[in-house]
Fold this sequence. Notes:
Layout: E1 3-9, H1 14-28, E2 32-37, E3 48-56, E4 59-60, H2 62-70, H3 72-75, E5 80-85, H4 90-93, H5 97-103, H6 106-114, E6 119-123, H7 133-142, H8 153-166
Parallel strand pairs: 1-2, 1-3, 3-5, 5-6
Antiparallel strand pairs: 3-4
Helix pairs in contact: 1-8
Bound molecules: flavin mononucleotide.
Amino acid sequence: MTKVLVAYASKNGSTEEIAEAIADELTSHGLDVTCRSARDSDAKDVDAVILGSAVYAGRWLRPARRFLKAESDRLRHLPFWIFSSGPFGDQAAHPSEEDLRWQEPHKIISRAQELGVRGHVVFGGRLPLEPHGFVEAAMVRNTPGENHDARDWAQIRAWATTVAEELGAREQVEGPESS
Ligand SMILES: Cc1cc2nc3c(=O)[nH]c(=O)nc-3n(C[C@H](O)[C@H](O)[C@H](O)COP(=O)(O)O)c2cc1C
């Protein structure tokens, strides 16, 4: 069975939940999936990798940056995909050129492209539920409540399905015929 690692870096938990949804979708397509923090992961003994991070101030979080660097030799020889999570509100729905500069970690994308990444996607993010510090608190205060969580679960699962299809996975059939 194809072994897939979904590794993530998340400060306030919302990217971790995206990674879990991706892992769940891949599992439902019959893949053997491990989902864990990029801090505690490596790409040893897996057949494919998905690496994702929240974006803060235009950058991926350190555990994901480190993973990409430390595992580059292995990633070069594996099918792998990357995702970023961050934008919310209007920035998620209608990003301007300026917004895109902050949503897409350009250095990371270039590095991943050098290693042969199959794709990069930006998912909407979620503002912290318990903001720490002045900046986070101001962002939460200045954003209308209905825009706090821009994660589109249908989009996330559809993207995971395209990855599963590229990996040649078959939908697992639930029910008596599969037992
Ligand atoms: C202080 C701060 C800075 C942020 N900077 C960016 C940014 O540069 N680009 C972006 O797309 N999102 C940015 N965001 C949004 C976060 O990426 C978003 O809240 C994300 O879902 C957080 O993921 P996490 O819960 O996994 O930490 C920022 C959020 C905060 C609180």
